[in-house]
Amino acid sequence: MKLGVIDLMVSGSSISANLVPLVGTYDLGFLFSSFPQQTKAFDAGAAKPIEDALLKGSNIRIIAWAYNFGSRSVLARKPVKTPEDLAGLKIRTLPNPVITECLRLMGAAATPLAFGEIYTALQAGVLDGLEHDPPTILASKFYERQNSTR
């Protein structure tokens, strides 16, 4: 987009945060407790400073916000219900410092890895699991590999 090759894209905050670090605020784990809370905050103008920073810093204009900020899931070889359950697990994170540090602070061995390498890394046992949004986990069929034996 910045080069003018494409005019429109659907993207998460993690990609934009590489251009305008302030956008990384939305990658903080548990930022919103529910989708209605996020909607209420955005409708009240909470996103305006970030929209302005994106326009000024990278000429990106936001036309709509999605409903996935803070809504992340961990898919692992064993159930993960609390941060303590992450202890020692090699969990793939987005190559984003905010998300990586969040998982590390919860006890995981946070492992930034390119998206295209996740499936085979799970299959080979290089990873114990991953952190991502539920639609991506399902669409990419990562659940097929997280239960496989090593």
Question: In what order do the strands lie side by side in the largest sheet?
Answer: 1-4-2-3
Shape: globular
By CATH, the architecture of the largest domain is named 3-Layer(aba) Sandwich
Could you tell me the strand content as a percent range?
Answer: 5-15%
Please tell me the overall pLDDT: 84
Number of strands: 4
How do the helices and strands follow one another from N- to C-terminus?
Answer: HHHEEHEHEHH
Bin the helical content.
25-40%
What name does CATH use for the topology of the largest domain? D-Maltodextrin-Binding Protein, domain 2
Which structural class best describes the helix and strand composition?
Answer: alpha/beta
Verbal overview:
This protein has 150 residues and is of the alpha/beta class. The protein folds into two domains: 13-58, no CATH class; 73-146, D-Maltodextrin-Binding Protein, domain 2. 34% of the residues lie in helices and 11% in strands. The protein has helices spanning 13-17, 35-43, 48-58, 97-105, 118-124, 134-139, 143-146, and strands spanning 73-76, 90-93, 109-112, 129-132. Strands 1-4-2-3 form a four-stranded mixed beta sheet. Strand 2, helix 4 and strand 3 form a beta-alpha-beta unit. The longest helix is centred in the middle third of the chain and has 11 residues, at 48-58. The protein starts with 12 loop residues before the first helix and ends with a helix. The model has no long low-confidence stretch (mean pLDDT 84).
